[in-house]
Amino acid sequence: MMNKDGKIYVKGLESGKKYKFKESEAPEGYILNDKIHEFEIKENGEIVKDTLSNEKIVIDVPNTSANDYKILIPVSLCGLGIILILLSKDKRKKK
Q1: Within the chain, how many helices (H) and strands (E) appear?
Q2: For residue 37, with 0-12 CB atoms within 10 Å meaning exposed, 13-18 middle and 19 or more buried, which class applies?
Q3: Do 45 and 15 meet the contact criterion of CB atoms below 8 Å apart?
Q4: What does the pLDDT average to over 56-79?
Q5: Which of 12-16, 49-53, 91-95 has the highest mean pLDDT?
Q6: Alpha carbon distances (Å) from 22 to 19, 30, 33, 54
Q7: What is the model's pLDDT at position 70?
Q8: What is the mean pLDDT of residues 24-30?
Q9: What residues does 36 pair with on adjacent strands?
C-alpha cells in the first residue's frame, strides 16, 4: 500500500529475502516508470532500499501571447477610418 507521500508499505514480507516490484500506475502528471526495482530485507531486519522516481510529463504549450494585436490595431483603425469616410460621404449626398 502506498501512502500520500508515495512510500510503499507491505506487510508479511520475510527477512533474509530479496523482493522485486514494478510500478503499475504513475502518479497524476508523471510518466510510468516500467523498470523492475529490487529491495532486500536482511536477516537483521535492515532494509536495503531501491528508490523509484517518475519523470514529470512536460507539455509544450504554444505561445499564445503572439504579437498579432500589433497588426490588428492599425488594420482595425484603418478599416474604421474608411467606414467613417464612406459614411460621411453618404450623408453629404443625402443633403
Answers
A1: 1, 5
A2: middle
A3: yes
A4: 78
A5: 12-16
A6: 10, 15, 8, 12
A7: 73
A8: 85
A9: 22
Query: Which grid cell is 14?
Result: 520475510
Spell out where the chain has E strands. Answer: 17-22, 30-31, 36-41, 47-48, 55-56
* Tally of residues, the chain: 95
- In the predicted model, what is the mean pLDDT of the chain? 82
DSSP 8-state class, residue 1: -
Rounded to 10 degrees, the C-alpha dihedral 44/47/48/52 comes to 170
Place of cell 499564445: 64
For position 18, what pLDDT does the model report?
93
Helix, strand, or coil (residue 73): helix
Q: What's the Cα-to-Cα distance from 50 to each of 19, 44, 82, 94, 95, rounded to whole Å?
A: 10, 18, 72, 88, 90
